[in-house]
Amino acid sequence: MKFTDGYWMMREGVQASYAAEVADVRVDEDRCTLYAPVRHVTRRGQTLNSPLLTVECWSPAEGVIGIRSTHHAGAAERGPEFALRTEPGHAARVTREGSLLELTAGELSLRVDTAAPWRLDFTADGRVLTSATARGTGFAVLGDGSHHSLAQLTLDVGELVYGLGERFTPFVKNGQSVDIWQADGGTASEQAYKNVPFHLSNRGYGVFVNHPGKVSYEVGSEAVGQVQFSVEDQSLEYFVVYGPTPKDVLDRYTALTGRPALPPAWSFGLWLSTSFTTSYDEETVNRFVRGMAERDIPLGVFHFDCFWMREYQWCDFTWDPEVFPDPEGMLRRLKEEHGLRVSVWINPYIAQKSPLFAEAKRHGYLVRKADGDVWQWDLWQAGMALVDFTDPDAREWYASKLRALTAQGVDCFKTDFGERIPTDVVWHDGSDPERMHNYYTQLYNETVFEVLSEARGAGEAVLFARSATAGGQQFPVHWGGDCESHFGAMAESLRGGLSLGLSGFGFWSHDIGGFEGTPTPEVFKRWVQFGLLSSHSRLHGSKSYRVPWDYDEEAVAVTRDFTRLKHRLMPYLFRAAQQAAERGTPMMRAMVLEFPDDPACHTLDRQYMLGDDLLVAPVFSADGVVDYYVPDGTWTHLLSGKQVQGPGWRRERYGYDSLPLLARPGSVIPYGDCDDAAEYDWAHGVTLRVHTPVDGATVTTRIPDRGARDGSAAVFRTTRHGDTVTVAAEGAPGPWRVLLVGARAEPGDTGSPASAERTALGTLLAVSAGTTHLTAHLTGG
């Protein structure tokens, strides 16, 4: 929200007050409170008839400092609140020397000169990260009487801002006005399904606004050198989170708001959907599944969209008996004959025609208006009502319906909707409707995730969720919502995913081919490449199917080849997934996250890093021409072995069998020995693809254990000294191989014997089970 009219004046009807100085300080051992008048006070009489802001300063964890500015503190505290995690045993340190007050939390400090005009400096590594200056702390009262607490933090020269949830507007948020407010706006507007009041700066810090309701941002769009955020409330709380790297910021931010759960290995395979309003029954499902098998396209999950239930009755959690007369038998056959997991679509609404409506109304499980009537409307479903997840009994009632489905054989749920939450209602627990609007999705997804965790066991729960807010990363996976079916929509989807990744979400997907409309074969094939080089991969549409043979035979080949490539990459991809769960580093990473010291990477939004070492540049054109940037070093095309020297821009043309997919200089990419499933013994028979190893460097490659999930089945250490490459293995359960990409080599004299084979990509060295040491001599290339 903008409060000013240019630099000098306020907008009509706005009265703004800002902290002017520090009048008094209360210092405790690990926190301090500043009392700030809104004007410079030189005599006692000026303390009358004027506001005094209370500004509390503390630290919940090392590298994180919290600020809470309050005007009137008498308001009743009504939820909901974000569940934040403090660091056990952490305590900030407060020192005072003369007029200088400093609160220190690890490497991050807050400095305040109590004798100077108002200024809060957040410092680290000998520099000021950002500051709240003359208009940095205050409030504004509008003509309608509404009270808005606000803060401004300075932007440095060249400073860029990212994040704020899954936003499809320009990737860099500078110059944008952003409202953190859940909306069902598709992927082609400023509205967003996943709104997160957290922004990340390329200057080594992030800021989380601890308010679950509407937060209004002006990112250099009102005061061009400031990020302003405001809430309609008497107080405003925010946390400055230090890095110094962007990965470190996300590590600390997700430690505060919750780490992403680690999805099960099978969820990384290809998902196929019935699509939305298309005509389908069990025969359609069988035709799709058989068609994939006949064309050698491995399928991991089959998804039933809305019309698995009867029309006008969403959600009643009951299979349409006319379309699916034997759901238990059908699910059993899909599992036994095809080895598939099953996903079904749900939402948090109960239509009036559903028998569950009367049941839920009778028990008081539906959200009500102030007069006691159930809140309803006809948008989406006729007479639709909303489950009140603030009521523990309603939550358990909803969960019981899901347990019945898991007992039938359903493995996971697509948790659709959760954005259009009314504010003219009364919640069971007395929550503030404005604060609950964004937060509702957290309760919804948490309820479903808990059911799956109980039913399927630890580590086996996975959602396909559309809406989310801060902390929602704990319940993956999230997908990008309703996009069109053209190259522009494909690019905007990627922008949204990269933005969400910089907001603490580790796992993200999108509708391959687009949702609305029908893609051309060209769009479909390029989107398949992009989708199968994403965290999770789902073929889904609205009014048309997404089976590849509906497009052309080449689409079948592209789908088959890239699905099998993803399966081969599972030892690498699941390790990246573990990193997301351990530190909050997303699997799909904006280039700035991986290369913060390369300014050319700071604005890139049409390419990304998939894990630590793979650069992906999807093709967004029918002619196959793609422009992409390569950071410093010698990069290697994963599919062709061609080397590309960076830094610099490349313009290349690709057929549908390829795209820019480059291995990082010096990287070792583990390839699994199976390409027909995502879940297998990744370490057995693994091939280590070694790319331009750096002399004197050792690269450690950990192959995850799909059973232990949090450990490694095998660890390989690859070292180059001159013309000698040595690989040491620990815990390898069977034979393994080393492919020296782009190099000619012979087995060395030490370690177990290895056979050498020249391939189009380089030299392949194979060793037998039990080998713990391999040495190779480079002979050229």
TrEMBL record:
Q: Which residues form a coiled coil?
A: none
What InterPro entries does the record point to? Answer: Alpha-glycosidase_related, Gal_mutarotase_sf_dom, GH, Glyco_hydro_31_C, Glyco_hydro_31_N_dom, Glyco_hydro_31_TIM, Glyco_hydro_b
Q: Which domain of life is it from?
A: Bacteria
Keyword set includes rRNA-binding: no
Q: Which Pfam families match?
A: Gal_mutarotas_2, Glyco_hydro_31_2nd, Glyco_hydro_31_3rd
Question: Does this UniProt record's set of keywords contain Electron transport?
Answer: no
What the entry lists under PANTHER family is as follows: GLYCOSIDASE FAMILY 31 (PTHR43053), MYOGENESIS-REGULATING GLYCOSIDASE (PTHR43053:SF4)
Q: What is this protein called?
A: Alpha-D-xyloside xylohydrolase
Q: Which organism is it from?
A: Streptomyces africanus
